[in-house]
Amino acid sequence: MVANLVRSLPFWFLLQRRALRPPPSLSPPSSLARAEGRLQLGKIEVDAYDRLVNDCGRPLYPIEFLDDVSASFPTGPIRGPNNQLYYVVTGDPYRHQELLRPWLEDIAAGRYFDSWHGETRTEYPWEIFQKQWMRWVMFRRWQKDNRDLADGDGGLEEYLEVNKRYAKRYYGELVGADELSKLEDDQSWLERRWKYEQQMRELQRHHCCESRPTGPAFPNYVDAVKRRLARHDFKRPFELNQDPEQQGKLETWIEYLYFEYWWLDLFTLAIEQRQQKCDEVWRKLGDAAALRPGETTDYIRTEQCAMLCVDEERQARADVKRAKEIVEDILEATRLDLRRPSSPQSERIPRLQQGHQGVDRAQMLLERAMKRSGLIKEFKSLTDDLETAKRDAARHRILLQWILDQVPLIEAELGRNEIVSGLDGIRGSKAIKRKLGGSDGDKTTCQTGIEKRRKLGPSRSNGMVILDSEIQQKQVVPFIVSGTGETPPRDKQQRSQAREPRARHLRRTQAAREAAREAASQGLRRSARKPDVSPFGSNFRKSAEATTRGDPVQPARVPPGRGDAKLPAERKKRAMHRAHQEPVLSTR
What we know:
It is built from 20 helices and four strands. The protein is mostly helical.
């Protein structure tokens, strides 16, 4: 029967415990075997982390710390010499205790229902993500049950496929092939396990659910959520969605907070009920005079008191047996005396009565010892259940505090996302301005204020902006001032007519006009060659480069017929207009 019960347990539930079974041999396993087992457990933990994140859960800590956290806890049990179990300690178990405190202990360790338990436990204390994922799955089912929604898990076929994928991923190459062959050959045991899980699922729907009054299910559930949260001083406004998949991240987390508050109230109610039962049993002990002088509630829960009760009950049973043997001896002697007329009846009857009185006395002492032992056992059991409920409630308050601390973090994350989506253009513009005003030698293009507003302004349709990389593709070019090429300083690289002072703008315009007049007087014009994009020709570029190197500047040679006197008025006007609009010289 035990074997059938074990086979009916969930598949993932067995896998976690199968890895923890001590090896059958007396010799400890090799380091390679321990490393493979540790790696397998790590894969299960990583998988639980991924599932939790993908389902909008919140892991306790980043996955990068998993190796360090797992290495700080003992490894085992390992069966060593003399068939003893040992634990290998490779780190400091108290190193991450404060970090793991909200999820370190098992949840709902006590039994609160007749045929179903909501316990969330793992074999190793560092398997936090598995514990979080199991709890999150229970919460997701809670959401569907209180909305009258089906699970949608795909039924038996999907269950079989999940187990096959699980075997491929988490077993070794040889063991995985063996497990897959077993699954392909005989799937009846998986079918039985699936049916058992469906039975447990029905029990969860019955026990782990908000009480429903008459009326529409979902509105009543929403009212119950708000009332319970208000009793626990959580009064932030929120609205739940009848479809949990369409519900917001913050609302889902608040509903999860309510789910754990439901469990805390369950623990609190169990504490009150079990405390009342303990008081009743203690009064029964006093009324039955079963308490000895000096016996307290702490003493009768000790192992010494339990052993004393066992000894007293054993002694009382022995006394009853001895008293019955005495009566049998008296009866046998009486039968012998009946053959002798000299044995009067007045002597035989008192002897028989005395023997029966001894049996009755011994039987009464046995019943008293059994009653005392039974009441003490009941009191001890109820007290243990009471202490378990108190521990569950205490550790659940720690978990609830962590859940409450996540609420402002989620609000901040959602607020940042809204700010980024709404002010994306403004942030992009500020980032580009900081980039343009970078360190010395940063070759970025100067742009006019109109061009900046056209490229960097936020779009009203989609909020898209021009990135820094689009501006960094251009280079800084020198100004034309008095016939020489000068690289503008950083403060002048950000040329925005809308923000520069008017005096600086006038000085820059006047210098550009003087340069244009000088260029026009020398007869310079835009070169017709494609490689030269300068509006003034290659000769002036050479003179500018020579000036930059410190060489004497040679006057530009003007072709005959292209001087100032031969230029038409319209051409001179266009040249001056180009010099005013494009007061820069390309360095290519």
